[in-house]
Amino acid sequence: MRVTALVDDALPLPAAPSRTPPPGTGTAVAAIRTALPPHRYTQDDLTEAIGDLCLSPGADRALLRRLHASAGVRTRHLALPIERYTDLGDFGRSNDAWLAAGLELGEEALTGALREAGLGPADVDLLVCTSITGIAAPSLDARLAGRLGLRPDVKRLPVFGLGCVAGAAGLARLHDYLRGHPSDTAVLLSVELCSLTLQRHDASRANLVAGALFGDGAAALVARGSGTVGPAGAGPTVVATRSRLYPDTEQLLGWDIGPTGFRAVIDAGVPGIVRDHLGRHLRAFLADHGLTTDDIGSWVCHPGGPRVLSAVADTLGLPGDALDTARHSLAAVGNMSSASVLHILQKTWERHRPEPGTWGLLLAMGPGFCSEAVLLRW
From the candidates 129, 164, 301, 370, which is the catalytic residue? Predict the structure, then answer.
């Protein structure tokens, strides 16, 4: 289904007073760590293998090859060796694989981020854990608590359903929590094993697009409230956040859930919605804090795909190189759903750290259809 209009665009956006806090009062990002599975493949290696999984013997592979060639992806990491995907069979087996690999990668990312921040498991007051590629009860965070030595009174919040936007939304909700608990430490853990949702014997365009774009990985971010003291050279500070849910767009992006698990819904109209409407909402958000897009020196954008990145750049009038880190992440590891924007923030911090005082904007979109923006100050 293609959605061509949004009902909220007929209404003016409500004006909001500036709520930008004074310097030093925001949420400090203390560390980020990404964990990738050891099974790394080039896009060319995966094209025919995914064709074997999704297409009937002798089927025309022209569309599959075009999608893989135009996805902007060079290499990806998979939760399992590619030859094991033929044996997964039903949703139960795929979900079991998600749980086993997810716990390993989640532990690696979380322990690495805490170590990088100079903290231990007992320092964590809140753990938000997000994944849209598998389900478990007890959830991943509960299973990791004992393995890592988290306190018995640690607050936990497992999140399902936000999809690709959850990296940005998770950081925003950490900020909300830490504003009320400024002496606490909060952690966001994203575990996304997208390859395990690939539907075998499904030649739909959405499934083939998913098979061309998505990769696997986990990422953890450690955030500290304004009442804690961070190390010298720490990462950016979260200044403000803005959520936006677009009415009548529920069918653009998400899952159709059935006996074989999670079947991708990816509407071709997504880039058009981004191009037509995202810029207005982000400019209003920045204006509430006395800023324009020209004031933003660091863009951290979830790489939904080449067309989505182009739509973001177009609607915001960004310079040609503004989203290069996102494009490099897409090329190196594919779209890792909610983990990608955290991976891009980590790479921005490590390789292209902005000068102190630089404004940044972290941005992602996901099912709903929705967007989440996080205003940063380096």
Answer: 164
